[in-house]
Amino acid sequence: MIRYLTSIGLSAVLLLAIVWSIISNFHKEENGGEALNEVNQPVIKEKEIHTSVGQVEDNQGDAGSFYVDIDESVLYSHDHEHMEQQPEVSALNIPAPDFELMTLDGKTLKLSDYLGKKILINFWATWCPPCTEEMPILQNYYEQHAEDNNAVILAVNLTDQEGGIEPIRKFANDFHLTMPILLDKKGQVSINYEILTLPTSMIVNEEGFLVEQIIGPVTEEMLEEKLGVK
């Protein structure tokens, strides 16, 4: 008799456990399907943008189909704007620091030798692409208009940042440059003129005052406006 009652009791407990399990799962599904998600589906969470690697990923670690190299896109945008923008012109009114430099053909020139003329001092280097672009424009003005307009162009090369004199000589020959090319071998003149960007040009008036700074390659129209044309 006792064994029979025990068997009935165990059966009842098992039946209650099954019923409770069914009711519990039913309530979980009604409350948002948590049990289903936990067993059969990944929980989709908010996506995160990892700018360090430029990928869009969810926080399960799976890479998405969209890829952007953040660093390169920013650099490209910046370079594009730099190439498209007009040269930056700033007005000045300070005495031009005098200097004495050797030219590519071995002469020695001083800035003060040209007092009474309009002077454009162009700071440049052979490895600077915008310098290469503007050099024919400077040479053309020097040949065609400088003498008639009491003007001179001094091309000051940042020789301390070059690989010797020969690249400069080759550059001058390739572009058939006849304007004075001055060699800033120690970099002191570029320091005195606070040159941070190439090319940079300085306009000095007839009285020896710096009147304008031009950051970026000059154009033919700018030369005619700043130095004159007849």
UniProtKB/TrEMBL annotation:
It comes from the Bacteria. InterPro entries: AhpC/TSA (IPR000866), Thioredoxin-like_sf (IPR036249), Thioredoxin_CS (IPR017937), Thioredoxin_domain (IPR013766), Thioredoxin_ResA/DsbE_sf (IPR050553). Residues 90-220 form the Thioredoxin domain. The keyword Cytoplasm does not apply. Keywords: Disulfide bond. Gene3D superfamilies: Glutaredoxin. The keyword Disulfide bond applies. GO terms for molecular function: antioxidant activity; oxidoreductase activity. PANTHER family: THIOL:DISULFIDE INTERCHANGE PROTEIN DSBE (PTHR42852), THIOREDOXIN-LIKE PROTEIN YNEN (PTHR42852:SF1). This is TlpA family protein disulfide reductase.
